[in-house]
Write a structure and sequence with these properties.
Shape: globular
CATH superfamily of the largest domain: Alpha/Beta hydrolase fold, catalytic domain
Distance between the termini: 24 Å
Strand content: 15-25%
Structural class: alpha/beta
Radius of gyration: 18 Å
Strand order of the largest sheet: 1-2-4-3-5-6-7-8
CATH class of the largest domain: Alpha Beta
Order of helices and strands: EEEHEHEHEHHHHHHHEHEHH
């Protein structure tokens, strides 16, 4: 089994912490929120053993990677630029990029903006589509009104940081289980009837599973995730959300642009991110070489952790097909 090693590399003005394994064609794995390179622990070895050089960074604002203070230092252009610089820092010129959760917009945009570097793209959980007609957070504010929506809650600097950092281990347990395919899921991520007031805190809506963790998640996993946020805090990751409308504005220059590289999409049928026929159709209008859409039964948001073997098998097959 391939060994996972760690080091730091300089990219796009950052010192970036990476985990890497294997030799061969480069595959870059981009994590989401609130996560780290560790979200890809099962994929690093599996893809390396299949003959690939696999690198999973702690992205901008996470873990031991540089955490800029300025909110506007976390736009999609910064995030894509970080991965472009990472490929160069690794001595490579081409890569396959794979993203999950927030890492998916990074992957989709990297493929769209730099097809000369990213020869294929895979996304877990979050599909892509063309740019909408209005800023997403402004739209969400009208849609939810005086009801709670976690992305709106994340907008005010300092508020979510204070809550999430109060007890990081509890935060990680609640969020990892609450957005998973577990039966007792958090309504904090589920738009619908009976939402709490917008003035609510997020974690108070989420049950704490304590030691009663699902089979894919151990107490040691929770402790490691918590240790990364003990280093960086949550501000950096939250700042990604605070740039959603700014990213929308920046995206005007790419309106209507297609992603023409080979692509793969994987999600769980219990994911808190909505995925249906309409979102698949919207994705297919933009992604012209979408090789497969895989929906895993009983799987929630943490796709590659909850269903590691199924995700590994499909990723390896995709990599060998392209």
């Amino acid at each position: 089994m391939a060994e996972i090693t760690h080091r730091k590399v300089d990219t796009n003005g950052l010192s970036m912490f990476i985990a890497e394994a294997g030799t061969g064609p480069l595959v870059v794995l981009c994590h989401g929120f609130p996560e780290s390179w560790y979200s890809w622990r099962h994929q690093l070895r599996a893809l390396a053993d299949a003959g690939y050089r696999v690198v999973a960074p702690d992205q901008r604002g996470y873990g031991e990677t540089t955490c800029p203070e300025a909110i506007d230092a976390y736009t999609i252009h910064h995030l894509v630029g970080d991965i472009v610089g990472l490929v160069a820092a690794l001595g490579e010129t081409r890569a396959v990029i794979v993203g999950h959760d927030w890492g998916s917009p990074v992957a989709w945009n990297a493929a769209m903006m730099r097809p000369d570097i990213f020869r294929a793209v895979a996304s877990l959980s979050v599909p892509t589509s063309d740019r909408g007609p209005t800023p997403p957070m402004a739209t969400a504010a009208k849609l939810f009104g005086d009801r709670f929506f976690y992305q709106l809650y994340f907008q005010a600097p300092g508020v979510a940081e204070h809550e999430l950092q109060n007890d990081i281990a509890v935060t990680m347990r609640k969020m990892l289980v609450g957005a998973s395919g577990a039966r007792e899921r958090s309504r904090a991520f589920s738009p619908g009837a009976n939402l709490p007031p917008a003035s609510s805190f997020m974690l108070q809506q989420m049950p704490d599973p304590g030691a009663n963790l699902p089979g894919w998640l151990t107490a040691e996993d929770v402790a490691y995730f918590a240790s990364r946020f003990a280093i960086s805090g949550f501000r950096g990751g939250l700042n990604w959300y605070r740039n959603i409308d700014r990213n929308w504005a920046l995206g005007g220059s790419f309106q209507g642009r297609r992603i023409e590289q080979p692509a793969l999409f994987i999600a769980g049928d219990r994911d808190v991110v909505p995925f249906n026929q309409q979102s698949e159709a919207a994705m297919r209008r933009i992604v012209t070489d979408l090789r497969d859409v895989v929906v895993l039964p009983g799987v929630g948001h943490w796709t590659q952790q909850e269903a590691a073997e199924a995700v590994n098998e499909r990723l390896v097959r995709f990599l060998r097909e392209i």
